[in-house]
Specification:
The protein has helices at 3-18, 29-36, 40-56, 120-136, 154-157, 188-198, 209-215; strands at residues 102-107, 114-119, 141-146, 149-152, 163-165, 172-178, 183-185, 226-228, 234-236. A hairpin with a 6-residue loop joins strand 1 and strand 2 (114-119). The strands form 3 sheets. Strands 3, 4, 5, 6 and 7 form a 5-stranded antiparallel sheet that branches. By secondary structure, it is of the alpha+beta class.
Length: 240
Amino acid sequence: MNMKRWIIGSLIAVSCLLSGCGGSFSASEEQQRLQQQVNPDDVQAVQRAVEAFQQDSGGLLPIKTVDNDTDIYIKYLIDFQKLVPTYLAALPDNAYEKGGIYQYVIWDAEQSPTVKLVDLNAAERIREINLRVMVQQYPAFQEQIADYIYTLNYERMGLEPLSVQSPYSTNYLPIVVTTQGQAIVDYRIDLQRLIDDMDIDITPGEDLRPLLIERFDVLPAYSVPYTVNEAREVVFFYTP
């Protein structure tokens, strides 16, 4: 895909996540805490609402319309206007539409629709980088860390170094870029810890991201495939 076209598509997708009726951020400390945390009860409540809507609508899902080539992790955005108040009493406190940092989405929409979250902190960092790349026509590559994957020279891009707090741990995750100009979050640290701590049997060549999807409510959005090498070290598994 042409890099400029990809970046424009990415900006549209991120704008879709960040646009709409976002709530005020001048909330109380307690409200801000609720807006930052993942609450499994909220996820389950939205799941029940989605299932009830789907049953009543003859199989349709309460989702917003996006482009067909939108990243699979953010493709099926939940439209709360179709759920509240008939199927859901109120918006979750951490939903972006209420000022929170999570966009509620549907994962595996075709086979087993499951409510998941996308961390909008990552979306905002990606947007900052993509906007700068659009201005400069090409990302400022710094160091190659894998085939087709580079770190960014933030100084040349006129940006402070950017990272994203992991939705799975206390780690701060770097943002790197593909040779196609795709800014991505580097989840290798979290994946390595998961494999080591749980002694998970992984075959080289197998994408590791489903390990996160199965165990957490937050999706590994803005990423490329990862696998392990023969030494069980997590590595990028990406080809343009």
